[in-house]
Amino acid sequence: MNDPEARRRELLRQTRKRYDDNHFIPAVHPRYGNIYHELYDEQESTYSGDSFLFRLTLGILCFICYVWMDSSQAKIVNVSSDQIVHQIEKQVDMEDIQEVWNHL
Questions:
Q1: In Å, what is the CA distance from 80 to each residue of 2, 71, 75, 85?
Q2: Is residue 47 within 8 Å of residue 30, measured between CB atoms?
């Protein structure tokens, strides 16, 4: 631990000691929550915000299903792989999005 980090931790400890009755976490954006807890919490956090592995697995699974549909020319729920590609490539106008959004 370098000197500025040790100084910052000591100042944090002193501040916590001064305001011991107010144990609160300041408003921290969820993206930076893990970094905040890593720097300033002594106890381990029970929250595990790491969803990268889950998202990666889901993406790979979707890709494998798409490749299978394309290679076997299968139609699932009356949708072919060509229709999926067409919907991905389709350009959507902002007016269409606003029209759909206004109906919700």
A1: 59, 11, 5, 9
A2: no
Q: What is the pTM of this model?
A: 0.39
User: What are the distances in angstroms from CA 55 to CA 50, 69, 80?
Assistant: 10, 21, 24
Write out the DSSP string of 16-76. Answer: HHHTTT--------HHHHHHHHHHH-SSPP------HHHHHHHHHHHHHHHHHHHHHT--B
CA distance 13 to 43: 14
pLDDT by residue for the chain (104 residues), tens digit each?
688 888 888 888 887 777 665 556 666 677 777 777 677 666 554 555 678 899 999 999 999 998 998 888 888 888 888 888 888 888 888 888 888 888 77
Tally Cβ neighbours within 10 Å of residue 80: 14
Tell me if residue 76 falls in helix, strand or coil.
Answer: strand
Helix axes 81-89, 52-72, angle to 10 degrees: 120
